[in-house]
Protein backbone atom coordinates (compact mmCIF):
# COMPACT_ATOMS: atom_id res chain seq x y z
CA UNK A 1 0.00 0.00 0.00
CA UNK A 2 1.41 3.38 -1.01
CA UNK A 3 0.82 5.81 1.82
CA UNK A 4 2.74 9.01 2.68
CA UNK A 5 5.51 7.28 4.68
CA UNK A 6 6.08 4.73 1.89
CA UNK A 7 6.05 7.52 -0.70
CA UNK A 8 8.75 9.36 1.28
CA UNK A 9 10.78 6.15 1.41
CA UNK A 10 10.46 5.78 -2.37
CA UNK A 11 11.68 9.37 -2.74
CA UNK A 12 14.74 8.36 -0.72
CA UNK A 13 15.38 5.49 -3.13
CA UNK A 14 15.11 7.90 -6.08
CA UNK A 15 17.52 10.23 -4.28
CA UNK A 16 20.32 7.63 -4.35
CA UNK A 17 21.25 7.93 -8.05
CA UNK A 18 20.70 11.70 -7.95
CA UNK A 19 23.05 11.97 -4.97
CA UNK A 20 25.64 9.81 -6.71
CA UNK A 21 25.49 11.83 -9.93
CA UNK A 22 26.00 15.10 -8.04
CA UNK A 23 28.82 13.64 -5.97
CA UNK A 24 30.68 12.16 -8.92
CA UNK A 25 30.21 15.35 -10.96
CA UNK A 26 31.86 17.33 -8.16
CA UNK A 27 28.68 19.21 -7.29
CA UNK A 28 29.27 18.67 -3.61
CA UNK A 29 26.80 21.20 -2.25
CA UNK A 30 23.99 19.58 -4.25
CA UNK A 31 25.12 16.10 -3.19
CA UNK A 32 25.21 17.22 0.45
CA UNK A 33 21.76 18.81 0.09
CA UNK A 34 20.28 15.60 -1.36
CA UNK A 35 21.89 13.57 1.44
CA UNK A 36 20.43 15.89 4.11
CA UNK A 37 17.01 15.91 2.39
CA UNK A 38 17.05 12.11 2.37
CA UNK A 39 17.78 12.16 6.10
CA UNK A 40 14.84 14.48 6.66
CA UNK A 41 12.50 12.20 4.69
CA UNK A 42 13.74 9.28 6.81
CA UNK A 43 12.81 11.09 10.00
CA UNK A 44 9.49 12.23 8.54
CA UNK A 45 8.35 8.86 7.21
CA UNK A 46 8.90 7.19 10.56
CA UNK A 47 7.19 9.96 12.50
CA UNK A 48 4.22 10.09 10.14
CA UNK A 49 3.81 6.29 10.19
CA UNK A 50 3.78 6.27 13.99
CA UNK A 51 1.48 9.27 14.40
CA UNK A 52 -1.04 8.19 11.78
CA UNK A 53 -0.79 4.45 12.55
CA UNK A 54 0.03 3.75 8.89
CA UNK A 55 2.91 1.32 9.33
CA UNK A 56 2.95 -1.26 6.55
CA UNK A 57 4.85 -4.45 5.86
CA UNK A 58 6.24 -2.83 2.71
CA UNK A 59 7.50 0.11 4.73
CA UNK A 60 9.05 -2.16 7.35
CA UNK A 61 11.30 -3.66 4.66
CA UNK A 62 11.64 -0.72 2.28
CA UNK A 63 12.64 1.91 4.85
CA UNK A 64 15.79 0.22 6.18
CA UNK A 65 16.69 -0.90 2.64
CA UNK A 66 16.50 2.70 1.38
CA UNK A 67 18.59 3.91 4.32
CA UNK A 68 21.20 1.21 3.78
CA UNK A 69 21.38 1.80 0.03
CA UNK A 70 21.96 5.54 0.42
CA UNK A 71 24.54 5.09 3.16
CA UNK A 72 26.46 2.32 1.37
CA UNK A 73 26.40 4.26 -1.91
CA UNK A 74 27.80 7.32 -0.16
CA UNK A 75 30.49 5.38 1.70
CA UNK A 76 31.63 3.46 -1.38
CA UNK A 77 31.73 6.55 -3.61
CA UNK A 78 33.61 8.55 -0.97
CA UNK A 79 36.07 5.68 -0.44
CA UNK A 80 36.83 5.54 -4.16
CA UNK A 81 37.68 9.24 -4.06
CA UNK A 82 39.83 8.65 -0.93
CA UNK A 83 37.57 10.80 1.26
CA UNK A 84 36.60 7.91 3.55
CA UNK A 85 39.05 5.20 4.60
CA UNK A 86 38.59 2.02 2.60
CA UNK A 87 38.89 -0.09 5.74
CA UNK A 88 35.70 1.53 7.04
CA UNK A 89 33.79 0.56 3.90
CA UNK A 90 35.13 -2.99 4.15
CA UNK A 91 33.98 -3.24 7.79
CA UNK A 92 30.51 -1.87 6.94
CA UNK A 93 30.05 -4.07 3.87
CA UNK A 94 31.38 -7.16 5.64
CA UNK A 95 29.04 -6.70 8.57
CA UNK A 96 26.03 -6.22 6.29
CA UNK A 97 26.88 -9.25 4.13
CA UNK A 98 27.46 -11.44 7.20
CA UNK A 99 24.16 -10.35 8.78
CA UNK A 100 22.13 -10.89 5.60
CA UNK A 101 23.78 -14.25 4.81
CA UNK A 102 23.38 -15.35 8.42
CA UNK A 103 19.70 -14.46 8.35
CA UNK A 104 19.21 -16.42 5.11
CA UNK A 105 21.16 -19.43 6.39
CA UNK A 106 19.10 -19.49 9.60
CA UNK A 107 15.91 -19.31 7.56
CA UNK A 108 17.01 -22.16 5.28
CA UNK A 109 18.11 -24.29 8.23
CA UNK A 110 14.98 -23.82 10.34
CA UNK A 111 12.25 -22.71 7.94
CA UNK A 112 11.53 -19.89 10.39
CA UNK A 113 12.26 -16.20 10.04
CA UNK A 114 14.24 -14.70 12.86
CA UNK A 115 13.04 -11.29 13.95
CA UNK A 116 15.90 -8.85 13.48
CA UNK A 117 15.69 -5.97 15.93
CA UNK A 118 18.18 -3.12 15.95
CA UNK A 119 20.67 -3.12 18.80
CA UNK A 120 22.12 -0.10 20.56
CA UNK A 121 25.49 -0.79 18.94
CA UNK A 122 23.74 -1.06 15.56
CA UNK A 123 22.03 2.29 16.07
CA UNK A 124 25.31 3.88 17.16
CA UNK A 125 27.05 2.37 14.13
CA UNK A 126 24.47 3.90 11.81
CA UNK A 127 24.71 7.24 13.62
CA UNK A 128 28.50 7.39 13.29
CA UNK A 129 28.39 6.21 9.67
CA UNK A 130 25.91 8.99 8.87
CA UNK A 131 28.00 11.49 10.79
CA UNK A 132 31.13 10.40 8.92
CA UNK A 133 29.47 10.85 5.54
CA UNK A 134 27.96 14.18 6.59
CA UNK A 135 31.31 15.52 7.83
CA UNK A 136 33.05 14.48 4.62
CA UNK A 137 30.33 15.96 2.42
CA UNK A 138 30.37 19.18 4.44
CA UNK A 139 34.17 19.31 4.10
CA UNK A 140 33.86 18.84 0.34
CA UNK A 141 31.47 21.81 0.14
CA UNK A 142 34.06 23.92 2.02
CA UNK A 143 36.99 22.71 -0.07
CA UNK A 144 38.96 21.65 3.00
CA UNK A 145 38.70 19.03 5.72
CA UNK A 146 36.80 20.50 8.64
CA UNK A 147 38.25 19.43 11.98
CA UNK A 148 40.44 16.53 10.77
CA UNK A 149 40.87 14.99 14.28
CA UNK A 150 37.10 14.92 14.75
CA UNK A 151 36.57 13.34 11.33
CA UNK A 152 39.22 10.68 12.03
CA UNK A 153 37.66 9.93 15.43
CA UNK A 154 34.23 9.55 13.82
CA UNK A 155 35.68 7.09 11.27
CA UNK A 156 37.11 4.95 14.08
CA UNK A 157 33.90 5.12 16.13
CA UNK A 158 31.85 4.13 13.07
CA UNK A 159 34.16 1.16 12.47
CA UNK A 160 34.16 0.13 16.13
CA UNK A 161 30.38 0.23 16.56
CA UNK A 162 29.82 -1.44 13.18
CA UNK A 163 32.10 -4.34 14.14
CA UNK A 164 30.51 -4.57 17.60
CA UNK A 165 27.02 -4.62 16.08
CA UNK A 166 28.07 -7.35 13.66
CA UNK A 167 29.40 -9.51 16.48
CA UNK A 168 26.24 -8.88 18.48
CA UNK A 169 23.98 -9.86 15.56
CA UNK A 170 25.96 -13.06 14.98
CA UNK A 171 25.73 -13.89 18.70
CA UNK A 172 21.96 -13.26 18.66
CA UNK A 173 21.60 -15.48 15.61
CA UNK A 174 23.50 -18.33 17.26
CA UNK A 175 21.40 -18.01 20.43
CA UNK A 176 18.22 -18.01 18.37
CA UNK A 177 19.37 -21.12 16.48
CA UNK A 178 20.21 -22.87 19.76
CA UNK A 179 16.70 -22.08 21.07
CA UNK A 180 15.19 -23.51 17.87
CA UNK A 181 17.18 -26.71 18.35
CA UNK A 182 16.18 -26.90 22.03
CA UNK A 183 12.49 -26.22 21.26
CA UNK A 184 12.57 -28.80 18.45
CA UNK A 185 14.16 -31.44 20.68
CA UNK A 186 11.67 -30.74 23.48
CA UNK A 187 8.76 -30.94 21.02
CA UNK A 188 9.91 -34.25 19.54
CA UNK A 189 10.37 -35.92 22.94
CA UNK A 190 6.92 -34.98 24.20
Protein architecture, described:
This protein is mainly α and 190 residues long. The chain has two domains: 81 residues, no CATH class; 107 residues, no CATH class. 84% of the residues lie in helices and 0% in strands. The protein has six helices and no strands. The chain is globular. 26% of the residues are buried. The model has no long low-confidence stretch (mean pLDDT 90).
Concise description?
By secondary structure, this protein is mainly alpha-helical.
- How large a portion of the residues is in β-strands, by DSSP E? under 5%
Structural class computed from helices and strand pairing: mainly alpha
Low-confidence stretches: none
Major β-sheet profile: none
Cα Rg: 19 Å
The structural domain count equals 2
Shape: globular
Secondary structure: number of strands:
0
Q: End-to-end span in angstroms?
A: 43 Å
The averaged pLDDT comes out at 90
How do the helices and strands follow one another from N- to C-terminus? HHHHHH
Number of helices: 6
Helix content: over 70%
Write the layout of secondary structure elements.
Blueprint lengths: L3 H21 L3 H25 L4 H24 L5 H25 L9 H23 L5 H42 L1
Helix pairs in contact: 1-2, 1-3, 2-5, 3-4, 3-5, 4-6, 5-6
Brief descriptors of the model:
190 residues; mainly alpha; 2 domains
Amino acid sequence: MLNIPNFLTLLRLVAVPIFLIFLLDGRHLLAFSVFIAAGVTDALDGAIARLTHTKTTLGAYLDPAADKLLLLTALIALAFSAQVPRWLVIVVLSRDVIVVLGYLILFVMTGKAMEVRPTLSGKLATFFQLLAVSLVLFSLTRGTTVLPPLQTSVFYLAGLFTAAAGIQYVYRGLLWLQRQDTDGAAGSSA
